[in-house]
Amino acid sequence: MNDWAPIAKEYDPLKAGSIDGTDEEPHDRAIWRAMLARYVPNKGVTGDPHLTLFVARLNLQTTEEKLKEVFSRYGDIRKIRLVRDLVTGFSKGYAFIEYKEERALLKAHRDANRLVIDQHEIFVDFELERTLKGWIPRRLGGGFGGKKESGQLRFGGRDRPFRKPINLPNMKSDSYGEGSAEKRNWSREGTRDWRTRDRDHERNRDKRWPERERLWTGSESERERDSKEERSRGRERKDRDR
């Protein structure tokens, strides 16, 4: 508990798949894929990773010019890389923005998260691919965040930090047969008494059942008689009126 933190200091797929980082077995196949993956960060990416922001959940129509217009408010930008599909050239909905100064980076990280750009609420975090040890991207079963509908929830990041685990003390319960022998005997005798009570109750219920049937049948017969008498009285009144 002393080393616990809401944000992961290094990436572990098994812990990232747990809401509090205490799971010991993977609960979905994506975690298995991430644990077996041997991912190496892209060596073709240039720039200072400690001055780079990761911007996700962008509108597919958002351009580099729009990102520069918005994020230049926080400081001087050195480079913007909007990730696009190699075949179609369409945006994939996320980008990397490198600042010249750390002060601008921290300000954008603090204020630009959940900002609305082109009718989309964006997500802003530090770059993790080259800064977080053991990082596995989401396409290999890793990553952080996620939606409930997808079934691939990952914790330990800014979007979904770890929840503090609850440590329950190991207390012995006498109701499960633990404790002294006298208590166990007392509990067994008590169960026998309950069984005899249930049997007596069932027998009494069987005895009372025919009596209730008689009462119900008697009440029904009385109701039928009353209804017949009312009908006959109504006919006599009609005959008198005629």
Explain what this protein looks like in three dimensions:
It is elongated, with a radius of gyration of 36 Å. It is 38% helix and 12% strand. With 242 residues, the chain is of the alpha+beta class. Strands 2-3-1-6 form a four-stranded antiparallel beta sheet. A two-stranded antiparallel ribbon has the order 4-5. The protein has a domain at 13-150: Alpha-Beta Plaits, CATH 3.30.70. It has helices spanning 13-16, 29-36, 64-71, 102-111, 181-241, and strands at residues 52-56, 77-84, 91-99, 116-117, 120-121, 123-126. GO terms for molecular function: mRNA binding; snRNA binding. Residues 146-242 are annotated as: Disordered. One of its GO terms (cellular component) is precatalytic spliceosome. Residues 146-162, 180-242 have a biased composition (Basic and acidic residues).
Helix and strand arrangement:
Elements: H1 13-16, H2 29-36, E1 52-56, H3 64-71, E2 77-84, E3 91-99, H4 102-111, E4 116-117, E5 120-121, E6 123-126, H5 181-241
Antiparallel strand pairs: 1-3, 1-6, 2-3, 4-5
- Low-pLDDT stretches: 171-194
- Rounded Rg: 36 Å
CATH topology of the domain at 13-150: Alpha-Beta Plaits
Estimate the helix proportion, in percent. Answer: 25-40%
Count every beta strand, where a strand is a DSSP E run of 2 or more residues: 6
- Order of strands side by side in the largest beta sheet? 2-3-1-6
> Main β-sheet, in a few words?
4 strands, antiparallel
**What percent strand?**
5-15%
**Mean pLDDT level:** 80
User: In sequence order, what are the helices and strands, one letter per element?
Assistant: HHEHEEHEEEH
Fourth CATH level, the homologous superfamily of the domain at 13-150:
RRM (RNA recognition motif) domain
Structural class: alpha+beta
The end-to-end span amounts to 97 Å
